[in-house]
Amino acid sequence: MILEWVLSALVLLSGFFALIAGLGILRLPDVLIRMHATTKAGTLASGLVMAAVAVGFGDASTIARAVAIVLFLMLTAPVAAHMIGRAAFRSGVKLWEPTVIDPDARAKLGVRHHGTPGGD
């Protein structure tokens, strides 16, 4: 019975964080902030589902696969978010008004005027 409560809590928490990630995509003002919400909440939601799978099945091969999946997500999600954010910045996607941009960032990334790479 306790195992069922633990599994239920993990799955419900996972659903909650997945809902938060979905709401973040819909409600947040720009691509950089949306990415932050989806990568953090989405990775946590996936990790909680994998924890529920590992606890529910309990055999060594399933636990190893669940751990491998969580590690893979934790390694790839931030890198993918960084690359998407960099591409959005370089292509000139309009950012939220209060966003502060490092004055040297455009020069570091080869962006001249409002996201045109290498343009005048």
Describe the protein's architecture and organization.
The chain is mostly helical. The chain has one domain (2-117). The protein is 74% helix and 4% strand. It has four helices and two strands; from the N terminus they run H-H-H-H-E-E. The protein has helices at 2-27, 31-57, 60-91, 105-108; strands at residues 111-113, 116-117. A two-stranded antiparallel ribbon has the order 1-2. Helix 1 (2-27) packs antiparallel against helix 2 (31-57) and helix 2 (31-57) runs antiparallel to helix 3 (60-91). The longest helix has 32 residues, at 60-91.
Pick out its properties:
74% helix, 4 helices, disordered C terminus, mainly alpha, 120 residues, elongated, two-stranded antiparallel sheet, 2 strands
Distance between the termini: 67 Å
Low-confidence stretches: 115-120
User: How many separate structural domains?
Assistant: 1
Please bin the fraction of helical residues.
over 70%
Total DSSP helices: 4
- The gyration radius over C-alpha positions equals 19 Å
- Could you state the order of secondary-structure elements as H and E? HHHHEE
Strand content: under 5%
Number of distinct beta strands:
2
Average predicted local confidence, pLDDT: 87
Q: What structural class do you assign from the helix and strand content? A: mainly alpha
Across the major sheet, the strand order is 1-2
Shape: elongated
